């Protein structure tokens, strides 16, 4: 299971993590339900308890990886190498 902590609010000494929640790739991640978001201690404890009871949502995680990468995870290194090689030639 993945739990993303976003506890900094700009005034509590932890930086301002909340600004990153507006980034397109972060919105896609959160909308995919492939990860949990914890913005405070209570949410973090709840997310940990949920993860221990239910485990990860492997279907959502797999769908997110497919959406982000576009090729099977096994082929990612080969596809990256091909793309880099095409830039050299």
Verbal overview:
This protein has 89 residues and is mainly alpha-helical. It has helices spanning 24-32, 41-54, 58-69, 76-88, and strands at residues 3-5, 36-38. Strands 1-2 form a two-stranded parallel sheet. The longest helix has 14 residues, at 41-54. It is flat, with a radius of gyration of 17 Å. The N and C termini lie far apart (41 Å).
The count of strands amounts to 2
**SS class:** mainly alpha
Compute the number of helices.
4
Strand order of the largest sheet: 1-2
Shape: flat
Mean pLDDT metric:
87
Describe how the helices and strands are arranged.
Blueprint: E1 3-5, H1 24-32, E2 36-38, H2 41-54, H3 58-69, H4 76-88
Parallel strand pairs: 1-2
Key words describing this protein structure:
89 residues, mainly alpha, 2 strands, 54% helix
Write a concise synopsis of the structure shown.
This protein is mainly alpha-helical.
